[in-house]
Design goal:
Helix content: 10-25%
Radius of gyration: 35 Å
Number of helices: 15
Organism: Trametes coccinea (strain BRFM310) (Pycnoporus coccineus)
Shape: elongated
Protein name: Lethal giant larvae (Lgl)-like C-terminal domain-containing protein
GO cellular component, one term: cytoplasm
Strand content: 25-35%
Family: Belongs to the WD repeat L(2)GL family.
GO molecular function: GTPase activator activity; myosin II binding; syntaxin binding
Structural class: alpha+beta
Number of strands: 62
Length: about 1150
């Protein structure tokens, strides 16, 4: 085949990047999304959040830029089972899938340092710490409780045997004893008394025991035994209602005063017990019990009615067990016993109820002083609970209000974020609640956050209809003319209408988003400044998320930080499972840092909250016809249906955003629409395919507003391709072969292409009209058959037949499309986004943007005739270049059979040169020259974790994704991570490394241990007695540490040397009962130089590893000595009898 002179004269557009050394691919940063959460924890003193995952990674987040990862090792990848901050010593504790305890020092310079891994020889069921001492209680599967010294990093000699076995032996003679007690001695949870460190609550399956640590005995036992006839949670239809029953205990919470405890049971009931009365619960209720209903009492009348005619009394649906309880107090009362409290309940709902989390508002616990009694009472025993006091306590348990947090799926866990104090189990005065729930996929989790407590639990402002408000408004109206008075009354009315009882959602960090897909876009400086303007301004219905701990900085050892400012700005446009579109800033300028004295000022990636697009309010309105799901029922929420976002198209100049739904609907949003523009109510559009949306206002603070949508149509089918032009045009292709082109200025449909309504005039034209278009792209160019530069739409089908539609302008401001289209041959099986038009001289992309529109409107015939263009068409088999779109073929290349499937192609430019890059499924990037398509280099990339094609922008940066493992055919595949790569890594990779952190920076002090309060009024001298009649009062943290560690406590090892601070704030020592902890910590400061510190740390780590190996060998040796083990068990049983005075 002969090559014409016109083709020979084409310049080489890849001259400056034609060598393999010009290309250097590198992974820049992995952005992880935690859809595999297994445990979460927060430190209220420092403001940090820790997230544990199924793969053994623990991610710590804090102030802007603060993020670091610690990993479960030896072996790696074990599931994080329990996660907790030890606030008193600022350490992170983790129990892994092999039931080993990992301890990290969070005060270590640079990153948390692993200090010790300890094994306990059997499964760990629970772990609990206190902000007031330095020991952790660890409950084992056999019912024994070990204590662990967090300063000395060893198991302390103090232990608590299985108390429930001993308790059952003691209570065998009871007339209400339960014969079936299998598994009742298993420990479910533990809790340290919030105001008396000497008392430890242990939740067994059989009930709750309270241990006195100093006396080493059990002082209270709360065992719920339902008498025959009591309904409990199963109701009167229970098969065993006529025999005594003991529901399995499943959850525990302590009232902030310390005088009440709530116990959850497997039948969905909650038992409220007085600390001073273990004989009978104050109340037993379910979530929907009313008034003073007590399900532990026997109602003989109702029982007889149900047993005599069960068909007339339908059985209630079974309930979920109570999985978790949290009892929150607030600084809302001058009474030291506190004011209103909120009990948060996970579980307890009927199994057919909508998923959610329940909060109960309870009255203050403020019983009056009990009448004095003359009966004698042993000095070492607490006085019995007076009937009047018991009655007052029961009234304090009558629920004032109930609020249910609706969730996307069944709730698995929740975490409260207190404003300041870590005491009261981290549940006091919380501002935010994080909820972890199930998703559509097994083992996948969805995170949601809400403000806490719910708005109805807080005293609401006066409404305009209240008498006081009416009087105030009447005073305001005095002296005003009728128009001003009417305006003020209208403003008050609108304010009352805007008030809502719904809890605001909290602004989650991106790591907790459930992302289904995303698109990487490069934007210029002006566009970037427009997008990020006032990005942190408040948004109605959204609360902040409390992350504030630590400081982060990057080291510039390679001296490349100064080059970051020359990099383009980049945006990630993401779409989520909750039918929202959110924007992330991934610009490298966010990584600029000058060391500890110039810390990072922003997260990476950084959210742009005001650009959020909420699609649910649009889809939920069934009158708009945008959802194919039947949405006529009240309370319908499309987030719970099969609605999904398939793709998002973002125009980087006009900043319009088109969202393609799986139903076939396409919704267009515009940025910063002036308020009051356009009609107020819903309008009908002249085209039946379009629906008007501009009357739907977004939440105040959000900048994107809906403009219009293309309705789904079963005849047209699903969307196969979509192209959004910066010049104001939108093209959408459908599976039926239909094509719609919309002029966004109307909006108005300017082309309806239906393959059934056109006659075929040629072979290529026949294929173009009979098959759906798989690739759409806009360009501003001329063709061999039409030398005038015009806006053109390229539409390619699977056979390679490409129809080119040319737009024509008619004054005033009217656009049409010339018919019939020009049909040419392109690459078969076209790749979406694989059609490009380049200037043959400069290699610049000729897009259908504003510059292309200007060139099309201001035609210069002489310039147009001399200008040449190259059309690049890429498909599944290869790529071809054609001169002037439908002129002479310039070159053609086949991918080959060994490179895998080509998923994405892009024209990548650098230093005024460009090349074609094809990304394959085997992790290769094939680089070809333009326009002659000669293979330059094959770059090997990491294998993609997703079958989706990478998202590439034309400067050489691209994003790949790792999706959550999902069964075949799953409708949703959330992302586990996004990997940011570049093809030009020279002087790029350094700043993208995870930053160094100082988690202790600006950390507050641990407040003193809360002191006991009396059950009666503050004037009563009951507070000096402590709890349960103890005259010794509450114990201090150093006393408990001395008790648990024993007399032979070794000297604690030195702590890590902290890094330099950007300021001199530092970490203050804890006050009150924290004096011993502060003294011990102060004694650990080492004055050795940095080099010796590092050498010492390395030797210590080596010693720890050898010590752990020796411990493992010793445990194996001891396991073979059965007689020694038998002797130990006998000795333990004999010593345990002292807990019950045998």
């Amino acid at each position: 085949m002969f090559t014409s002179q016109a083709v020979k004269s084409l310049p080489d557009l890849s001259l400056d990047i034609a060598e393999p050394t010009d290309w250097e691919a590198s992974l820049l940063r992995i952005v992880e999304y935690h859809t595999n959460v297994t445990a979460v924890a927060t430190d209220p003193v420092s403001g940090l959040l820790a997230v544990g995952t199924t793969h053994g990674n623990i991610h710590i987040y804090g102030s802007p830029g603060v993020q670091c990862i610690v990993k479960v090792t030896n072996p790696p990848g074990l599931r994080v089972k329990f996660l907790q901050f030890a606030v008193s010593v600022f350490k992170l504790l983790c129990i892994d899938g092999h039931d080993r305890l990992h301890v990290w020092d969070c005060a270590s310079a640079g990153r948390p340092k692993l200090q010790r891994i300890s094994a306990f020889g059997q499964p760990v069921n629970a772990i609990v710490t206190s902000p007031s001492h330095t020991h952790a209680f660890i409950a084992l599967a056999d019912g024994e409780i070990k204590t662990y010294d967090l300063l000395c990093l060893r198991i302390s000699p103090y232990s608590i045997p299985n108390q429930w076995k001993l308790y059952e032996k003691k209570s065998l003679a009871s007339s209400m004893s339960i014969t079936d007690t299998a598994g009742s001695e298993t420990i479910i949870d533990m809790a340290i008394h919030p105001r008396d460190l000497n008392l430890l609550f242990v939740l067994y399956e059989g009930g709750v025991l309270v241990s006195d640590l100093k006396e080493q005995n059990t002082v209270r036992a709360y065992e719920l035994i339902l008498p025959p006839g009591a309904p409990g949670g199963a109701g009167f239809h229970a098969k065993d209602i006529l025999v005594p029953r003991r529901p399995q205990a499943t959850a525990l919470a302590i009232h902030p005063s310390g005088h009440l405890l709530a116990v959850g049971y497997a039948d969905g009931t909650i038992g409220f017990w007085a600390l001073e009365d273990e004989d009978k619960p104050l109340s037993l209720r379910t979530l929907d019990s009313t008034g003073e209903e007590d399900l532990s009492a026997v109602d003989t009348t109702k029982l007889d009615q149900v047993l005599s005619s069960p068909q007339d009394h339908p059985a209630e649906p079974p309930r979920e067990p109570i999985f978790k309880l949290a009892w929150s107090g607030f600084p809302n009362s001058s009474d030291p016993r506190g004011g209103d409290t909120v009990l948060t309940v996970l579980g307890g709902m009927p199994i057919d109820a909508t998923s959610g989390l329940t909060a109960l508002l309870l009255p203050p616990l403020q019983p009056p002083a009990a009448p004095t009694t003359t009966s004698s009472q042993p000095a070492n025993l607490a006085p019995p609970l007076h009937p009047e006091t018991r009655t007052a306590m029961c009234k304090s348990l009558i629920v004032k209000d109930v609020y249910t947090y609706g969730t996307a799926g069944p709730v698995q866990d929740f975490l409260l974020f207190p404003r300041s104090t870590p005491h009261f189990f981290g549940h006091f005065d919380p501002s935010t609640m994080l909820i972890i729930s199930d998703s559509d996929l097994p083992e996948a989790r969805t995170s949601e956050a809400f403000e806490f407590p719910p708005p109805p639990f807080v005293a609401p402002p006066q409404s305009p209809s209240s008498p006081k408000a009416s009087a105030a408004s009447a005073q305001v109206e005095e002296g005003l003319d009728p128009e001003e008075a009417l305006a003020k009354e209208l403003a008050l009315t609108m304010q009352s209408m805007s008030m809502t009882d719904e809890a605001r959602t909290a602004r989650l960090p991106p790591c907790l988003w459930s992302i289904l897909g995303e698109h990487l876009a490069k934007v210029d400086k002006h566009t970037y400044e427009t997008l990020v303007r006032d990005k942190l301004a408040p948004i109605d219905g959204e609360a902040s998320f409390p992350l504030k701990g630590g400081v982060a900085w990057s080291e510039d050892s390679e001296g490349v930080m100064k080059y970051i400012k020359y990099q383009p700005h980049r945006i990630l446009v993401t779409y989520l499972r909750d039918l929202s579109v959110r924007f992330l800033d991934v610009s490298p300028q966010l990584l600029v840092s000058g060391g500890p004295d110039s810390p990072l000022a922003s997260d990476f990636p950084s959210t742009i909250p005001r650009l959020t697009i909420e699609l649910a309010p649009i889809l939920i309105d069934h009158t708009l016809g945008l959802s194919l799901t039947n949405a006529s029922s009240a309370g319908y929420d499309p987030r719970l249906s099969r609605e999904r976002v398939d793709a998002v198209h973002f125009a980087p100049e006009s900043l319009e955003c088109a969202t393609v739904m799986r139903s076939g609907a396409v919704i267009l949003h515009r940025l910063d629409v002036p308020p009051g523009e356009g009609p107020v109510g819903q309008q009908s559009l002249p085209d039946e395919e379009l629906v008007y949306l501009a009357h739907i206002l977004p939440c105040r603070g959000l900048r994107y507003s809906p403009a219009f949508a293309i309705k789904p149509n079963k005849t047209r089918g699903l969307v196969t391709a979509c192209a959004l032009s910066d010049a104001g045009f939108l093209a959408v292709a459908y599976a039926s072969g239909s094509l719609l082109v919309i002029d966004l200025r109307g909006p108005r449909v300017i082309l309806r292409h239906d393959p059934d309504s056109h006659s075929n005039t040629g072979f290529l034209h026949k294929h173009a009209e009979a098959e759906p278009f798989l690739s759409l792209s806009w360009a501003s160019c001329s063709m061999s058959s039409d030398p005038a530069i015009s806006l053109r739409l390229f539409c390619s089908g699977a056979s390679g037949a490409t129809s080119i539609y040319t737009l024509q302008y008619h004054a005033p401001n009217t656009w049409t499309i010339a018919q019939p289209p020009v049909t040419i041959e392109g690459a078969t099986r076209p790749i979406s986004g694989g059609s490009f038009v380049l200037d043959a001289k400069t290699g610049m992309r000729c897009r259908g943007d504003r510059a292309g529109l200007a060139a099309a409107l201001h035609k210069d015939a002489a310039a147009d005739e001399t200008r040449k263009f190259i059309w690049v068409s890429a498909g599944g088999k290869g790529v071809r270049c054609t001169l002037n779109v439908n002129g002479e073929r310039v070159a053609k290349a086949e991918w080959g059979s060994k490179v895998g499937t080509v998923q994405r192609v892009e024209v990548v430019g650098k230093t005024d040169s460009c090349a074609l890059v094809a990304f394959t499924s085997l992790g290769n990037a094939l680089i070809y020259t333009l326009p002659h398509l000669e293979l330059i280099h094959t770059v090997h990339l990491p294998a993609l974790g997703s079958s989706d094609p990478p998202s590439v922008e034309d400067s050489g940066d691209f994003a790949t994704h790792t999706v959550f493992p999902a069964p075949a055919g799953s409708s949703a595949r959330p992302l586990l991570s996004t990997e940011l790569h570049t093809l030009f890594a020279q002087r790029r990779a350094g700043p993208y490394a995870l930053p160094l952190v100082d988690l202790a920076y600006d950390r507050g002090t641990v407040p003193p241990q809360p002191q006991p309060v009396s059950l009666g009024p503050p004037s009563v001298m009951g507070s000096v007695l402590g709890y349960i009649g103890s005259f010794s009062g509450a114990s201090a943290g150093d006393q408990i540490d001395a008790l648990l560690a024993g007399p032979d406590r070794p000297v604690p090892p030195p702590t890590s040397k902290t890094a330099p601070r950007p300021t001199s704030t530092g970490v203050a020592a804890a006050g009150g009962s924290q004096s011993s902890v502060s003294a011990a910590t102060a004694g650990m400061t080492s004055g050795v130089a940095d080099l010796y510190n590092r050498l010492g740390s390395a030797l210590a780590e080596r010693g720890e590893m050898l010590g752990d190996l020796q411990q493992s060998m010793d445990s194996l040796e001891q396991g073979s000595k059965s007689m020694v083990e038998r002797a130990k068990r006998l000795a333990a049983q004999q010593s345990a009898k002292s807990w019950f005075g045998f």
